Amino acid sequence: MRGSLHRFKFVQAWIDKEGRVHRYFRRPGYPRVRLPGLPGSPEFNRAYEAAMEMPLAVGAKRTKPGTVNAAITGYLSSLQFRALKDSSAKKHRATLERFRCDHGDKPIALLPQKFIAHVLSQMKPFAARNWLKALRSLMRFCVDQELVAVDPTQGIKLPTVKSDGHHTWTDAEISAFEARHPVGSMARLALALGIYTGLRRGDATRVGPQHVRDGVLSVKQEKTGGALRIPLHTDLIAVIAATPSGAMAFLTSSHAKPFTSSGFGAWFRHRCDEAELPAHCSFHGLRKAACRRLAEAGCSANEIAAISGHASLREVERYTKAADQERMARNALARTNVNTRTVKLG
Question: Which domain holds residue 103?
Answer without folding.
Answer: 11-144
